[in-house]
């Protein structure tokens, strides 16, 4: 049999690699996938690249005629053992001669036909093995109902041996079934055996790839990773469980199933989005957590849709059952402020001992709305933050698990956005385990109408994540897959997907009738035996448990539920605070309230301002060559520092730098934020001569400073904003900022803004201090580069326009505490500096929306002095008129209130018209919560003047609809507040520069026409 071993050795494609790699200055360069039709008459060789050879070689194995004759000769000679450099022959060589040399090299000249058949048969077996590895999942028995194909296609690939006649596809016949073949190194089906009969090879391949587990991994472009998966699943006897493991699995299935049964009995008419049909998900998650804990994981952060959430809380995270049952009592009133949310949207956090490992583990389930998959990037951001604060750069202590529905996983674009963050340096969480609860239906939509891809999980292929499909009615197969997934994540720090192919026992919710739309499926579901009964019968039959033990396990858990139900009636008050998913120990009082209602001054000492300015103007690294244009920018910063003035970029630098000194981590993320969209920031310097050599001066400010993270994001708003929200959720002692490339683009992240940022505290009692930086301003740049849509944020503010508040000493801070978020439009660098620092110095956290400038970044008048930023100074919610008009308020005929950039247009026009005594201009730096107290003082100061609101935005856009009723409340509807600005429009800005300038001229004329409103009705 020595000749068989020799031939088998030549089948190792790594051997093919070595033949090429040993030829100096040779490289196989693949010109086209269809080699035979390219017209290439010889292999083009220069250098080395194994991937090209591999693709060519496998194409040749599948069909030698698919490659050019010269390649056919090359591979035949190489597999025959030709020495390096001798495998290649010119196309002019007689092909029959190469056949003869192949036969002679094995000493088989007396029977050349048999020898050639032997070689071809071995090649055929390798192709057969590869076919199962690539396409075996298409015929795996994945649907527990037995009526659907998980890949939406009943077609059986022609290269899989499902019947004896399929052997002919490889040139093999029934007579070959008992022939013994040498196994290639690309498979582990032999275990310790190196040779198997063809019959046994096919049997083992079918057992591995065509039963209850379907594997998709051969698209991964890493041989080590593919071999790892092959070994985990192909090695004979790997999927074995001890009696104790089986009993634990049964007990977990009992808890999962009986919890749903209990809820169905007690609250049959309540929506709960139960897990029936995929009860195996609970033991699956517990297996992942057990295996991960065993490998060192201390904290697991989870995100999931509503289906099965209560079961996960009860049986995975171990929420007190009485707290869950309380949520079903309609007579109980929540004691917490805010709106609250339905029980299957709430999150929680819990630390406990993992019984399987005896190690402490923390579990967090992030609260989220019904907007499917929106929580995915939030979980990733929170996970990244926890890894960052623990110094867990490789993700060995903190990990994330994301659960998905099949229809949402395929249909929601944020899934793709989140996957594409998975390997980016500033966003990676070092691998996420995705569990898809594949109900094979989306609400009432059949999968064939819900996706174009064969599987709902195909989006994961873009990041080379292996996908393990598994029949959920085979609990042991599910457990094995979960253990392998946990090991994969720990080994390779990459994402992995588990596709639990199951069914949904009831309708979309418990009140829904699924027979309307899926009658045949639900006829089968009504006949279906539960996975608990199937598995219990199996274990009873093989003697692992007795019927009595099984019934006792059920009775034990039923008793636990009944006792908790009794206790739940004693809970007179619901506390959503018990369901917090992100506790901040020590930040609030024990009752969850702020420790004070004061905010210290936000200014800093002059020497600190100077120090930060000097570092911002320098390159801290020796021999670092920067761009000439950047040298001029840094020189300009140094000049400003000497003159004790700042522009917008320098003010931001000083705000960030001062917080770093105080131990506050600062993270700035978004598209092109390192340089800044408008080339103003330059927080990351690039060496002009050395690739990838960069310098971040902000991290060289102080010896013991907190770290500064500034990172360009992928071209995503929805996914990245969700990520940054999750990052900010983890700790109150960080300033987390997301900047839109233009403020207009935040609308593609509207779901995160509406569902998490605006209403997160009201629904989930969850504070969050994220900062949104939205470049905004009408500058003739067109409708998609002008407006950050301030009207949308203001419309969602929760302050009452008709209620005049009571003022006290802490009004400015308490008003912020009562708001759902803070909206500002700063007109000076000093205001921007102070509002960023105030965000951290406040005794609570609220989202901060900042409409940032574009042209003001370099406007000669938009500068601030050190005096406005030094110790004792603070953010000014309103900047009143301080010119000649303020000196003689009784003579002022008009007060123009405005916000942001338009102030500079108004000041310039007022000076041109010589109206500096007749017209006062007052700026609102903070728009919401509305500064009632300060504006009341301004209005009373100019008692005889017209009150005008001026904005550069169109009348139906911007601030007017928000400020108008609040101004009227201040004056008790006794004085009008007139509007000056652009007329209503559907688009937020014109794309024509001349039209823009004409409309600007028009509203500026109106603003300073002191007779403009005389005689008009109020």
Task: Please supply descriptive tags for the structure shown above.
Rossmann fold; Helix Hairpins; globular; 34 helices; 1018 residues; 5 domains; eight-stranded mixed beta sheet; thiamine pyrophosphate binding; alpha/beta; 13% strand; disordered N terminus; seven-stranded mixed beta sheet
Structural class: alpha/beta
- Can you tell me the CATH topology of the largest domain? Rossmann fold
So how many helices? 34
- Give the rounded overall mean pLDDT: 89
Main beta sheet, described?
A: 8 strands, mixed
Give the overall silhouette.
globular
- The assigned CATH architecture of the largest domain is 3-Layer(aba) Sandwich
Indicate the radius of gyration in whole angstroms. Answer: 35 Å
Going by CATH, the homologous superfamily of the largest domain would be: Thiamin diphosphate (ThDP)-binding fold, Pyr/PP domains
Describe the structure.
Helix content is 39%, strand content 13%. By secondary structure, it is of the alpha/beta class. Helix 9 packs across helix 20 and helix 21 packs across helix 23 (648-661). The termini are far apart. One of its GO terms (biological process) is glycolytic process.
What can be said about this structure in brief?
This protein is α/β, with parallel strands linked by helices and 1018 residues long.
Chart the SSEs and their pairings.
Blueprint: H1 2-10, H2 13-21, H3 50-62, H4 69-79, H5 95-105, H6 112-135, E1 180-182, E2 195-197, H7 198-209, E3 213-216, H8 223-234, H9 243-266, H10 281-294, E4 299-303, H11 309-317, H12 321-326, E5 333-334, E6 348-354, E7 359-365, H13 375-389, E8 398-405, H14 406-411, H15 413-419, E9 432-438, H16 447-450, E10 467-471, H17 475-492, E11 496-501, H18 519-527, H19 531-541, H20 547-568, E12 573-574, H21 606-616, H22 628-643, E13 645-646, H23 648-661, E14 665-670, E15 685-686, E16 694-695, E17 708-712, H24 718-730, E18 734-739, H25 750-758, H26 760-764, E19 771-775, H27 790-795, H28 811-818, E20 822-824, H29 829-841, E21 848-852, E22 864-865, E23 878-879, H30 884-887, E24 894-898, H31 902-912, E25 919-924, E26 926-928, H32 932-941, E27 946-954, H33 960-970, E28 977-982, H34 993-1007
Parallel strand pairs: 4-7, 4-8, 5-12, 8-9, 9-11, 10-11, 14-17, 14-18, 18-19, 19-21, 20-21, 24-25, 24-27, 27-28
Antiparallel strand pairs: 1-2, 3-10, 6-7, 13-22, 15-16, 20-26, 23-25
């Amino acid at each position: 049999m020595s000749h068989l071993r020799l031939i088998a050795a030549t089948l190792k494609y790594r051997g093919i690699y070595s033949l090429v790699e040993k030829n100096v200055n040779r490289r196989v360069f693949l010109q086209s996938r269809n080699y035979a039709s390219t017209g290439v008459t010889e292999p083009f060789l220069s250098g080395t690249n194994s991937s090209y050879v591999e693709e060519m070689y496998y194409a040749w194995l599948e069909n030698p005629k698919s490659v050019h004759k010269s390649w056919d000769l090359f591979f035949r000679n190489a597999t025959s053992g030709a020495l390096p450099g001798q495998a290649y022959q010119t196309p002019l060589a007689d092909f029959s001669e190469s056949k003869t040399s192949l036969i002679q090299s094995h000493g088989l000249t007396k029977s050349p036909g048999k020898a050639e058949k032997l070689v071809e048969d071995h090649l055929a077996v390798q192709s057969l093995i590869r076919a199962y590895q690539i396409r075996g999942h298409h015929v795996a028995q994945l649907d527990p109902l037995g009526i659907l194909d998980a890949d939406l296609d009943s077609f059986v690939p022609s290269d899989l041996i499902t019947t004896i006649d399929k052997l002919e596809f490889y040139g093999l016949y029934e007579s070959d079934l008992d022939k013994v073949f040498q196994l290639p190194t690309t498979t582990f089906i032999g275990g310790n055996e190196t040779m198997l009969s063809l019959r046994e090879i096919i049997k083992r391949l079918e057992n591995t790839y065509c039963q209850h587990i379907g594997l998709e991994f051969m698209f991964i472009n890493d041989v080590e990773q593919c071999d790892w998966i092959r070994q985990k699943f192909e090695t004979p006897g790997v999927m074995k469980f001890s009696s104790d493991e089986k009993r634990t699995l049964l007990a977990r299935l009992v808890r999962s199933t009986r919890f749903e049964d209990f809820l169905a009995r007690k609250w049959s008419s309540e929506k709960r989005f139960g897990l029936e049909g995929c009860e195996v998900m609970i033991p699956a998650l517990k297996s992942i957590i057990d295996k991960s804990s065993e490998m060192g994981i201390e904290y697991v952060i989870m995100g999931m849709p509503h289906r099965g959430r209560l079961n996960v809380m009860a049986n995975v995270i171990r929420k007190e059952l009485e707290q869950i049952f309380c949520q079903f009592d309609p007579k109980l009133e929540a004691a917490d402020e805010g709106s609250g949310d339905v029980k299957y949207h709430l999150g929680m956090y819990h630390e406990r001992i993992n019984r399987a490992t005896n190690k402490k583990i923390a579990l967090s389930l992030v609260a989220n709305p019904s907007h499917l998959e929106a929580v995915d990037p939030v979980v990733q951001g929170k996970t990244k933050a926890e890894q960052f604060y623990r110094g867990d750069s490789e993700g060995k202590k903190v990990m994330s698990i994301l659960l998905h529905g099949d229809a949402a996983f395929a249909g929601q674009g944020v899934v793709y956005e989140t996957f594409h963050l998975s390997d980016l340096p500033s966003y990676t969480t070092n691998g996420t385990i995705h569990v898809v609860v594949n109900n094979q239906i989306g609400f009432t939509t059949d999968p064939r109408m819900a996706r174009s891809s064969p599987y709902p999980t195909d989006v994961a292929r873009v990041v080379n994540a292996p996908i393990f499909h598994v029949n959920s009615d085979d609990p042991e197969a599910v457990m094995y897959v979960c253990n392998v997934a946990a090991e994969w994540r720990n080994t390779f720090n990459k994402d992995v997907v588990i596709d639990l192919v199951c069914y949904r026992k009831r309708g979309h919710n418990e009140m829904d009738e699924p027979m309307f739309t899926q009658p045949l499926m639900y006829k089968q579901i009504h006949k279906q035996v539960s996975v608990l009964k199937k598995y219990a019968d199996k274990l009873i039959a093989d003697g692992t448990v007795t019927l009595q033990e099984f019934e006792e396990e059920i009775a034990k858990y039923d008793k636990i539920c009944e006792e908790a139900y009794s206790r739940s009636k004693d809970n007179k008050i619901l506390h959503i605070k018990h369901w917090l998913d992100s506790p901040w120990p020590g930040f609030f009082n024990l009752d969850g309230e702020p420790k004070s209602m004061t905010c210290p001054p936000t200014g800093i000492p002059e020497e600190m301002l100077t120090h930060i300015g000097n570092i911002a103007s320098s390159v801290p690294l020796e021999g670092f060559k920067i761009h000439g244009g950047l040298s001029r920018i840094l020189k300009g910063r140094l000049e400003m520092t000497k003159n004790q003035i700042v522009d917008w970029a320098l003010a931001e630098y000083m705000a960030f730098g001062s917080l770093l000194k105080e131990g506050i981590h600062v993270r700035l993320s978004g598209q092109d934020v390192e340089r800044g969209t408008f080339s103003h920031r330059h927080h990351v310097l690039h060496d002009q001569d050395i690739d990838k050599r960069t310098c971040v001066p902000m991290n060289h400010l102080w010896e013991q400073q907190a770290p500064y993270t500034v990172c360009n994001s992928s071209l995503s708003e929805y996914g990245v904003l969700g990520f940054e929200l999750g990052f900010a959720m983890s700790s109150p002692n960080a300033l987390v900022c997301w900047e839109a490339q233009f403020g207009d683009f935040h609308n593609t992240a509207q779901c995160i803004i509406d569902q998490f940022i605006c209403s997160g505290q009201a629904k989930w009692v969850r504070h969050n201090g994220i900062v949104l930086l939205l470049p905004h301003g009408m500058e003739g740049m067109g409708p998609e580069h002008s407006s950050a849509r301030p009207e949308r944020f203001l419309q969602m503010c929760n302050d009452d326009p008709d209620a005049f508040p009571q003022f006290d000493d802490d009004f400015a801070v308490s008003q912020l505490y009562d708001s759902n978020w803070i909206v500002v439009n700063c007109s000076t660098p000093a205001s921007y500096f102070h509002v960023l620092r105030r965000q951290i110095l406040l005794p609570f956290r609220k989202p901060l929306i900042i409409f940032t400038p574009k042209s003001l970044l370099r406007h000669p008048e938009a500068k601030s002095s050190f005096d406005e930023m030094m110790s004792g100074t603070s953010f000014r919610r309103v900047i009143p008129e301080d010119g000649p008009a303020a000196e003689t308020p009784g003579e002022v005929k008009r007060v123009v209130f405005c916000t942001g950039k338009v102030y500079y247009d108004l000041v310039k026009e007022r000076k041109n018209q010589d109206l500096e005594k007749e017209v006062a201009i007052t700026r609102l730096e903070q728009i919401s919560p509305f500064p009632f107290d300060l504006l009341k003082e301004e209005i009373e100061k100019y008692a005889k003047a017209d009150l005008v609101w001026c904005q550069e935005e169109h009348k139906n856009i911007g601030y007017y609809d928000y400020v108008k009723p609040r101004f009227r409340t201040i004056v008790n509807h006794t004085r009008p507040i007139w509007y000056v600005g652009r007329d209503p429009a559907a688009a937020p800005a014109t794309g024509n520069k001349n039209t823009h300038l004409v409309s600007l001229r028009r509203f500026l004329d109106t603003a300073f026409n002191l007779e403009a409103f005389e005689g008009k009705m109020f």
